[in-house]
Amino acid sequence: MFQRLKNTLSALFAGTSGQPGPRFVVHRRYQLNTPFPQYDGRRPFRILAYLEKRGLLRKGMLRRPRPATITQLELAHDREYLRSMELPGALRPILAVDLSPKDQDKFLCFQRMVCGGTLRAARIAQRRQDVAVNLGGGFHHARRSHGAGFCVFNDVAIAINALRAKGHHFPILVIDLDLHDGDGTRSIFAQDPTVHTFSIHNRHLGETEAVASTSVALGADVDDTTYLAALEKHLPPVVEEFRPGMVFYLAGSDPSIDDKLGNWRITLDGLLSRDRRVMELIQGLPCVILPAGGYGPRAWRHGAAFLSWLLTGDSRLEIPLELELPVGHYRRLTRHMKTHPALLPEEESEAPSTGDDWGLSQDDVAPPGGGDTHFLGAFSRYGVELAVEEYGLMGRLHELGFKELRVALDLEDPLGHTLRVQTGGPRPLVVFETRLRIDKASLPDRSFLSIEWLLIQDARSSFEMNRPLLPGQKHPGLGLLRETTAVFIVLAERLDLDGLIFTPSHYHLAAMARPLGWCPDPEGEGRHRAVASLLEGMRPREATQVLESGGVWDDASGEVFRWRPNQVIIPVSRRMKEYFASAQFEEQVRAAMARHRLRRR
């Protein structure tokens, strides 16, 4: 997917276009591997890949930036502060982690390139009197003499002062709708009446006094209604009274209920309503749009929907599997691994025949247990260990601080084969464990990779400061679920299976499988959609607690609605995808939804 995108983007960067509409600024150096599992370094390219797949990108729409020079950085930052960035450990107060000198230099180069992107977007927007989008940026916590919260350099302040240096002295409005306070930008322009810094956020992070500023703190657990009401109350008067000549819009995705670091509950529809209202209020003004905050594997979705709407007026999302999960990456790895015969399924492998075990047929248990020497009847022990290394699991676990890791396989259980990664030492900790089998019985003429058990945990601790444990968790997760699911999908492809199948034990696990996972039974799918519609806007943990405490009533049955686990399938084969896309299946699902009239108790 991303290789094809790279080839396409090369053509889109070339030439010019006289067509109206936004321009996009991006560079391959916007992708950065960081020690922060919540940060998706591919976010800009997932957005571009989505726009490209919808056919929305045209030749001349993309622009490459150059990294901001030291002289340009000095437009917003003290020279002594900039000099301090070359010292070892200079980024620790900003990132809360220590980086090696090499990684520190890479991080500074990344932020300088993104700052250069905002500079170029500002020049494009001003020259064309139109919208320009930098697919990185929004480093609004950086102040003149220090950085904070992942922000070393303030790209918005640099771009504004660069415009001033070119003689553009019109009023500039910064609309900051990141979840967090735009404290750094406000402090830099606190004495400048020509720059109005507008921020709606969860809490103030610094002094709010400024000659031209609006700072609104809404607290935690904000929903769509409260958020949009605050926007409508505060932003229109500012636009009307300040009369800006240009706007910088930080369209943060981190107010989303799905955000891994956020504490608000804004739906995707709420975010898009916000974006549409902002663009309506500033219609006709040159505008620079920046993605700002957004953390976790789904952060890119909002940007994709917003920019789709900006280009077409349609914000509906139809997300390919390759964008939701890094499947393409693992497909390429698998092709590369063809040079290692031990990693590939044996072309002609016939599992030894055994009698029934505990009343289970051979189709119920595949591969059969009892002396099997290959994982899932196809992969050697050496091949599995090599694949764990090749797919990067061991490397990711090492980055998370786990040492002396070893792989163990249990091929004796008739209910499935178990792969386990655990630490060494006298008291080993299991950090990854999964039990898999081939399921040929759940649907007629279909076969699946059945995930009987999956455990990915940080057994060193029992809680996270910013996220309580989910029901069923004893330890916090490690942020590897997306990568693991992608590997399972590639494994299913390699074994010529129709998809993945599993039975979520709690509602939040079923919700996390969306939009890729479907209940194959229309009745179960309809029940899930009815619940999801009722509990929309709640975090998965809270929704699970409501259901399990009897907090949902079904007027149709006249009793408390009880969540019942249903099988979920992530389709891989074409025929399985066609089954879920069929009009007959959708009609049956809608009929099942109508049989429930759910409400909160």
Describe the structure in your own words:
By secondary structure, the protein is α/β, with parallel strands linked by helices. It is built from 21 helices and 17 strands. It has helices spanning 2-13, 43-53, 70-73, 79-84, 92-95, 101-128, 155-165, 183-188, 224-242, 268-281, 299-312, 321-324, 327-336, 381-390, 393-399, 481-494, 507-512, 522-534, 540-548, 574-581, 583-594, and strands spanning 23-25, 62-63, 131-134, 172-176, 195-201, 213-217, 246-250, 287-290, 406-410, 417-422, 430-439, 448-456, 499-502, 552-554, 559-560, 568-571, 598-600. An eight-stranded parallel β-sheet has the order 2-1-3-8-7-4-5-6, with helices on both faces. The protein has a six-stranded mixed β-sheet with strand order 9-10-11-12-13-16. A three-stranded antiparallel β-sheet has the order 15-14-17, with helices on one face. α6 crosses α7 (155-165). The protein is globular and about 75 Å long. Mean pLDDT is 86; it is low at 339-370 and 462-467.
